[in-house]
Amino acid sequence: MMVHDTKLLEDLALLEEANSLLNAGFINKEQFNSIKKELPDFKQNSILVQIGFFFLGVFLYSSICCAISLLGIDGSEVFWKICFYIFTIIGITGAEFLAKEKYYQHGLDDAFIVGTILNFGIAVGITSDGYELVIAIFVALISFLMYRRYLYTPAMLIFCCAFTAVLFYGLFEFGEIGKTILPFVAMLTSLGFYFFSKKAIKDLKEKYYYNGLLLINSFCLILFYLSCNYLVVRELSVMLLDNEIRPGEDIPFAFFFWSFTAIVPLVYLYQAIKIHDRIMLWISFLAIAFSIFTIRTYHSVLPIEIALALGGVALFAVAYLSIQKLKYKETGLTFKPDRINNSNAINAEALIVASTFGMKPEVKPQNSPMEFGGGGFSGGGSDGSF
Fold this sequence. Notes:
Number of helices: 14
Protein name: DUF2157 domain-containing protein
Radius of gyration: 28 Å
Keywords: Membrane, Transmembrane, Transmembrane helix
Distance between the termini: 71 Å
């Protein structure tokens, strides 16, 4: 299924871990260069160059599609119904060719992969007369296949969004009942996929799948919070159920949604500090900010300028006191800069050396048939007796 050589992907993962060790100071530049000579790097590491090649790929792909469109400019309506399928085939062909030439996250291949997903979604939309559920299903399917085939992480993000759309539009098919239970179904689904991805990361053997699983894990955290956020639920109930909420009235289960909005960001923050998860920590900060925005939207006590000023003073005080408390700590939660970003990379040095120089794990020698014992007071392993 994977078009790229898995051995090269594993070597690339080792090289990235070696770079982490270099930045953390565990190995020096000479050691890194010797490792780099043995591990081929076929990935475009400059983000600016990658963006430039992406736009070049977009221009190339769109030029080919426009040239084909000119051939059918006087054609029948049937051509315009199938032309986006033709564009999809062109995108797959271009992505396959670039992958065979060892283009990986280069920019050119990114343009053809994204273009393939986009054109296929448009083609399905034309064929199904804009049926949202069908479009979401097929976009989720092709984005997942493109990720598995080309290991393109943004395709996994598209899959997560499309799968969420499948969940939403699927519940819409059940009418008012489906729309009513939508927040709870989304909450439980995101929770289930979060633990699934967490276990998959823990049991992961192919390192090159780590980023995709980590993206799913982070996406589930965001979806879990938004699924039962009071503002989101209230506005969706107005849009989907046409509920007119008069002054003094509230949505059903309002107490649960308010509690959820207030408690979940704090749980994220506590868990992130406990397990030292940086991504969850940033998500918790964003969730706390959105919860404050939600509360102010419906329960405004102070003018916005005074609230912002007081909030800034409170954040400054918390940041200052936290720095003073943590700046001298050497272990655990500390203000000192991280020596390494990936907690698994601390064990990667032996893996890199073994992979590079062909060293095998140390073998424990067999026990000697001659037994030595004692060592009481006579030395030489004797215990003072004959």
